[in-house]
Amino acid sequence: MIRTSQSESKTTEASATKRSVVCWNEDPQTQALRVELRNGSFLVFPVSHFLCAEFTQGDKGDALKLLFTTHEVSISGQHLREVGLAMQKLAVEWIKEIAPKYAKLAEPNAAVIVSIEVAAVADSDEDGGKQ
């Protein structure tokens, strides 16, 4: 089966006629996670480099941290638990930031990613192996 868009896999026929904001896609056969930033740039991380995820809920929203061998991806938004659970299955194909003003267009209880920060992981052997 060939899927051409997120709307085919995540929405029902009744809601397909409504415009909705989609900020991630699940695909159990994915080989890499594409992280799209609001400025148009993106990074691609092979799922084989995924180390762990940490999901936390807070009063002001959810946070999801994804750790790869070379980078840490920090995500904030709403209803991010389902994204974290999909990462457990290595099935998140892409994620992208949306402007906070568009968050209200998302389906109720749908994941909304309003911020993504990517940082290189510091080399644990910074002293070059000298003791």
Describe the structure.
The protein has 131 residues and is mostly beta strands. Helix content is 13%, strand content 40%. A hairpin with a 5-residue loop joins β2 and β3. Mean pLDDT is 84; it is low at 1-17.
Could you name the key traits of this structure?
131 residues, globular, 13% helix, four-stranded antiparallel beta sheet, 3 helices, single chain, disordered N terminus, four-stranded mixed beta sheet, mainly beta, 8 strands
Topology:
Layout: H1 6-10, H2 13-16, E1 24-26, E2 32-36, E3 42-46, E4 50-58, E5 61-68, E6 71-78, H3 81-88, E7 92-96, E8 112-120
Parallel strand pairs: 2-7
Antiparallel strand pairs: 1-7, 2-3, 4-5, 5-6, 6-8
Largest beta sheet: strand ordering: 1-7-2-3
- Approximately what portion of the residues adopt beta-strand conformation? 35-45%
Question: Spans with pLDDT under 50 lasting ≥5 residues?
Answer: 1-17
Q: List the secondary-structure elements in sequence, H or E.
A: HHEEEEEEHEE
Give Rg in angstroms.
Answer: 16 Å
Summarize the biggest pleated sheet. Answer: 4 strands, mixed
Report, as a whole number of angstroms, the end-to-end distance.
56 Å
Could you say which structural class the secondary elements and strand pairing correspond to?
mainly beta
Approximate helicity band: 10-25%
In brief:
This protein has 131 residues and is mainly β. The chain contains three helices and eight strands; from the N terminus they run ααββββββαββ. It has one domain.
